[in-house]
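Internal tracking record. Fields below are filled automatically when a chain is submitted to the structure queue. Please do not edit lines marked as system-generated. If the sequence contains nonstandard residues, flag them in the REMARKS field before resubmitting.
Queue: standard
Priority: normal
Entity type: single polypeptide chain
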Amino acid sequence: MVRLKDFLRVNRKEGMKGISPVISIAIITFFILGAILMAYYFINNLVLLNEGEKEFKLAEASMINFARDVESVAWNLHSTQSSQFIPKYGYLQVLTNIYKFKVFVNYSSSPDEIVTDAALFRMPVRKYTRGNNYLQNLYPAASKPEPINFTTENINDPFMRVFSVEKLQYTDTIDTVTVPRVKIIKEVFKSQNRNITRIWVKIIKLKKSSYPGKPQPNYLVATCINTSAKVYSYQVNLTQLQALNLRIEIEPLNLPNDYLQFRTTPYSLNIRDFLFNEFCGGYACSACTDVEIIIDVAEVEVRVF
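SYSTEM-GENERATED OUTPUT FOLLOWS
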């Protein structure tokens, strides 16, 4: 039987040596430092993601407040409202010429065109991400992440839309965005023994301010700088009325609709059918009415400050 001390003696004779204690300590220290650095990197990234998530959620709430600010100042000339953001990793931006609304009255070949800008809070995806192709409609809130109409006939619906989106094929940020929609309001009433039908096409147009902002802005400021109304008037006898139509289209410009996520099906209102339903219970009759189609635009300047 070979004893341990004899085995060790033979190996020393053959020139085999043990590992130096200094080298052993160095190797162990190297592994410990590596583990510490990896843990620090992981924890640091986790903290950054948590901070980025918190900042973005606050920005979403602030953007909803800003959308309401815009609605508050619209059609109130020179009125101003502002919303505060707390950007650390993200930043505020106003993009110009995002899309245009085209309003056709009575099959006109020359539509009224309203081009709007958009206000955004943007967060680099290296700081926070919800995944490519993410979409959430925040205002008006929607339970499903799907495109929404760019028009509404519901008088209680907001004029503005706020949504969060992540489209890495267009940008390396996750964004929360506010943009306008078109609200159509229909009124039928009598005035001095005359029937009056009034159809409002109400649009808020966002316009980027020409004033320079701060190097690190944390406010979005909305100011109503102009209002305008264009009126199309018709005197209608329902027994003679052949056609009267309102059509509204949306045309994306500097951002694709894959990013904007609007339903692009044009809005169309057959005013003849609408009047028959209002005055004649859906049947032909000899009622007469004055019809006014009013394209009512409030221009709201958006300043990053």
